[in-house]
Amino acid sequence: MTVRAPGQRRVAAPWVRTRLRTAPGAAAALALLVAVTAFLAAALPLAVDRYDDAGLRRALDTAGPERTTVSLFASVTDLAAESEGWDGLEAALRPEALRDSHATLLASAGRSLPLDPEQSSHGVRTTEELAVPDPGLSRPDALPPRFSLVAQNGLADHARLRAGRLPEAPGTVTAATRTVEAAVSTETARKLRIEVGSVLHVPGLRDTPLAVRVTGVVDPLAPREAYWSADPLLRSPRLETVPDDPQRSQYWVGALLLAPGAAPAMLGTPGFPERYWRLAPAASGLHGHDLPRLTSAVASLASGPLLRQARTATSPATESDTALDDVLAEHARLRSAIGPLVAVAVFGTGTVAAVVLLMAGGLAADRRRAELALLRARGGSLRGVAGRLLGETAVVAVPAAGLGLAAALRTVGGTRPSHAVAAAAAVALLACAALPLRAVAAHRAVRVHAPREDVASVRPSRRRTVAELTLLALAVGAVVALRTRGVSDGPEGAEGSGTAGAPGVSGASGDHLVALAPVLVGMIAALVLVRLYPLPLRGLARPAGRLRGVVGPLSLARAGRASGSAVLPLLALLTALTTAAFGGSVLSGVADTRDRAAVLAVGADARVTSPQALPSGLADRVRRVPGVREVTPVGITHYAQPLDGRTTLQLAGVDPAGYAALARHTDLGPFGRDALRATGASGSDALPALASPAVADHYGTRPFAVRLDDGALVTVRIVLVRERTPAVAGQEFLVVDRSGLPAGAARPTSLLVTGDHPDAAELRRVAGSGTQVRVRAEELAGHADSPLRSGAERVYTAAVAAGAGYAVLALLLTLLRAAPERAALLARLRTMGLTRAQGRRLLVLESLPQALLAAVGGILTAWAAIRLLSPGIDLTALALAASSSPAGRATLRTDPVSLLVPALAVVALTVGIAAAQAWWTGRRGSVRELRAGDAR
Fold first, then answer.
1. Longest dimension (CA), the chain
2. CB 177 within 8 A of CB 268
3. Contact between 878 and 338 (Cβ < 8 Å)
């Protein structure tokens, strides 16, 4: 007995510091796991926001300022009703009045619709183009050019002077002014033959025209930005055709850029001037997650509260016009179609990561079972034990999660760190709670000896049965919902969709249950397999006992004594295998659809096309281009006319042998090489023809005559019917042997090139001007040239890869959990005469049943999930740039590689780890493993 002196304080070692010193390796492993998981969780919403923002900006850039700029305008007719006489009209058109209203409009949009003040503009223009009959101007069909008078602000800031000087408005310009100054763009001056000093006479309201003296020629500094491209006429004149003219005569239309102070002079012309304000959105300030707010702001500016404010600042008759709402709607539809597919992968990987964190806590609790049982036996409360475990875990997990969050913010960046913080906090919370919750569940009652918990002895409780039935109902509901309405609410709900779904997954439908469908299917499979797993073990136990040797029966008995808490590892493996197969099938389907669309668009690996016949030696020169293996000449008549009066069709003349090889190579209507070969002299017999189904249904197999573009007649007879063919596209076509065509129609107009990566630049150089060269690889790259699509693919691939990594970690944790017991068993058996080879076989055979269960279950679960969910999944939006494609709807199909390779990897990894453990245990010897008192 120890006697403590009076006044002596009791010294207690700090719990957390003691535990960290006792197991520094376990603490470091937990910190690494939490840091990596927190990094991935925090990086996900940041990466999604990044590609979502880039996708929105690409959509605006592709649409161009002409569609994305919001234009407000008020005509002079409505202005006349508000103003008092000519003085009021002239004052309303002066730059001071427009400048004040423009500033008010820029401020009214606020943060809902970020605007670019540098590219936004205002001014006055004539709405009717005015004919200028001055000699010397370009007249394509002897028609005088027409001009629009434009007085826009900021010309000096957005243009570089090429010649002359900028226009000015000296004095006070009124409607009676008959002489003004203007500038023109370089392109306008070149195409309409305008020089500095030219005087153009614009018609006036009375007999006296308005003389416009050109004082300068300017080059736009940023011709593709909104200042110049909201109305492209400012920089580029255009040719227009006279309406209802049988001759289709054309004339030029251009713009004369007046000084802002000269705007009142437009009142003296019949051009019906109007004031306008063009509001250009600031692309750098637009974010994908603000799409609902942007859509609402554009709608308000088009016909809502913001338009009322604009009318207050400008004129009660001000109207609005923009296509920005259509651009945002198109982006929203694409976003809503892609987001839920990414959510499926994110939920699957998130589930596997959460299971791994729970398994890490369970492993720590099992390793410390004796310690925690002793604490409970000595009077430790559940709350006290759980609090201590929570404290020691939080000291490791919280800083590690913070480190992962900081790494994600520094590596990926983003405009919304709150979602990343929430994701990292969730990881830290789960990591901190896993060990205490597992310990509380295992030590609710104080026990001296723990009962058996192997799969052959544990019977499912009623609570577990109810929970499994609940999960089964959820899985069935999710699958039914996904099959009936797809992974998203469709285009109708796209405009209002925010960032529902997985955190940070743009465009998700908000129905988490649907995105969790593959996870729920894997969960149900895991629960079912865990229930069925003991049955074959019990059935094989008796026959195995009659086998010679000890390895077989002992390994089977050991497999039956595995831990009964195998649901989490099996759930992690099945979910990871299902997610990997699902993701691999999605990516494979996307790649196949893009490749098919590229083949249908080009018809070969490359295509050289000309409106007229190609030079005779071009085919030989193209054959010498690097990467070209074969060239198939094709002569195409685009407007062949059957003599029965049917609408025109396309007729292609080909070399049957080479074209048959091309059709087999591209898998576009393959046929035998002799099926189209002409048997008689040119024009003497009906030519065998390959036809589209529409043509074949109309003409059958009887011979019929077709008139070619040059008036020659050729008789054909349909012998083959194919929906598609490499040479031509469409619903109505014929393909015949060109040796049976007249000389003019037999000359090739297209060259279909096959080969491994033909050199596109060299092809274009060899083909020369006047030809069009299309390359299959470029068409394929065009479908992926979208930040939204490519970003979603990268996130999807990263999610699948992370899920596979966590599955491997779950397998390692499962084997690590049983490692001490296996080492002790091998040591005992080795003292009884078990050889090292037998020890390796024992561990391998013991681990095989669970590995095979996971592999076979993963294959079946992934196959079933894909088969069940594929009717509700459309990959077209993710695969193709166009909403409609000749490749048709891209559906989800099972990819054998994605299905088998992960499952075989699980088996191989399990066998490898078991063999490595047996080898390592044999090297260490048996003395340490057989020491008395060691807990195993």
1. 128
2. yes
3. yes
The whole-angstrom separation of Cα 816 and Cα 813 is: 5
- List Cβ neighbours of 311 (8 Å cut-off, separation of 6 or more): 317, 318
What angle separates helix 567-602 from helix 517-532, to the nearest 10 degrees?
140
Measured distance CA(509)–CA(505) in Å, rounded: 10
Mean pLDDT of the chain: 82
Residues 6+ apart with CB under 8 A from 149: 125, 126, 130, 182, 202, 212, 255, 256, 258, 266, 269, 271, 273
pLDDT(80) > 80 = no
pLDDT tops 70 at residue 744: yes
Nearest to 735 by CA among 753, 717, 750, 747: 717
CB 572 within 8 A of CB 356: yes
First to last CA, the chain: 32
Categorize the per-residue pLDDT at 680 as very low, low, confident or very high, splitting at 50, 70 and 90: low
Q: How many CA atoms lie within 13 A of 413 on its CB side?
A: 3
Whole-angstrom Cα distance, residue 295 to residue 496?
A: 8
DSSP state letters, 548-604: SSSHHHHHHHHHHTSBS--HHHHHHHHHHHHHHHHHHHHHHHHHHHHHHHHHHHHSS
CA distances (Å), 694 to each of 323, 685, 734, in order? 38, 24, 11
CB proximity list for 768: less than 8 A, separation 6 or greater? none
Tokens of 654: 């080909």
Say which residues have a Cβ less than 8 Å from residue 668's Cβ, sequence separation at least 6.
599, 600, 603, 722, 724, 725, 726
Q: What dihedral angle (degrees, nearest 10) is formed by the CA atoms of 716, 720, 721, 722?
A: -110
765: Cβ contacts below 8 Å, ≥ 6 apart: none
Other Cβ atoms less than 10 A from the Cβ of 146: the count is 17
Let me know: does 314 contact 103? Beta carbons within 8 Å: no
Closest CA to 636 of 775, 744, 762: 744
Rounded distance, CA 856 to CA 846, Å? 17
Distance between CA atoms of residues 724 and 258, nearest Å: 56
Of the candidates 295, 409, 394, 316, the one whose C-alpha atom is nearest the C-alpha of residue 49 is 409
Token readout for 537 is 């073990």
DSSP string, 638-705: EEEEETT-PPPEEEEEE-HHHHHHHHHHHTSS---TTTT---SSTTTSPEEEEE-HHHHHHHTTS-EE
Q: What is the DSSP string of 465-489?
A: HHHHHHHHHHHHHHHHHHHHH-SS-
Question: Which of 17-21, 838-842, 886-890 is predicted least confidently?
Answer: 886-890
What would you report as the CA-atom Rg of the chain, rounded to the nearest whole angstrom?
A: 38
Average pLDDT, stretch 95-104? 90
DSSP secondary structure, 81-94, as one string: HHS-HHHHHHHHHS
